[in-house]
Fold this protein.
Amino acid sequence: MSQSAPEYTLAAHPTTVGDARASTKPVRVTPTLVIGGHDVIVAAGPCSVEGYDMLLASARHVQAAGGTLLRGGAFKPRTSPYAFQGLGEEGLLLLASVREQTGMPIVTEVMDTRQVARVAQIADVLQVGARNMQNFPLLAELGRAGKPVLLKRGASARISELLLAAEYVIANGNERVILCERGIRTFETITRNTLDISAIPVLKAETHLPVIVDPSHAGGRADLVLPLALAAIAAGADGLIVEVHPDPSTARSDADQQLTFAQFTDLMHGISLIAAATNRAVRKPIPSPVVPNIATSDGAAMSHDTRRLAEETLAEETLAEETLAEETLAEETLAVVAA
Ligand code: PEP
Ligand code: MN
């Protein structure tokens, strides 16, 4: 490869001539939803899945306001090991249950190669967080996961490094990669990160991959989310991923940056005006039929499928506990024989 050849070949545009937006290759998420098509899409929901009621309330509001995907972290990458780490498996089951209630596809983070198969069973889009952008074994595993990947730019990553990370997923067999600009670390301390607006047109021009923006983690402050979202859509982003919480002040993670429902409604209105000004529209959610549910003992509504999944998980856990008990017994027997 010569010095001037692009380092990334699979994500690169075959040509940079012409309208960059027209040559973005849309990524299909469900039979009725693509990201990177003509319309702007919005994913929104809480930073972390904290419980059933707050997740369902968030999903219903996001959907009513025009959001098409539900976000929510079950596995949370936290800077401090003492901070809330997410509900894990329980969070995944709650996401699945709320999807059955609302018909909203789910985007949620996967942090570890060992979680990929399980998270891919539940999620419609697998999110790679900024802290994991260069976790190469994880990226390679996601190449084989069979679900679209939302790849967030690392806080200190160059655009070329983001594209090489995308290349790992694509080269391992998965073309469905969506890039996400979520702010980078600069010398500025007033904002959590600095939203790199330039990255949007650069990524759109250099690759065929859809580009979305996370204005929540970029600014780290609820009051900055609207202006950053408007700027992102004006600059040509294919969509947004936004944090919304029924009561942000009580959120177990990222309380400062999550929007109230009313603020989210305002944001959706604002971006629809900017989308129209750039000859686009915000994609409307397709209403889905409500699936009949069975109430569980903890008050959460679960369908047959989710309940089956929960029961299987429980059965696996019981099996693991029994195996552990057997192993302990075997060790004890060994100790008695040796004595
Ligand atoms: C998130 O979206 O929940 C998140 C942790 O974001 P980031 O990886 O961009 O910090
Ligand atoms: Mn967050």
About this structure: Residues 47, 217, 243, 253-254 surround manganese (II) ion (ligand 2) (CB under 6 Å). The two ends are 67 Å apart (CA to CA).
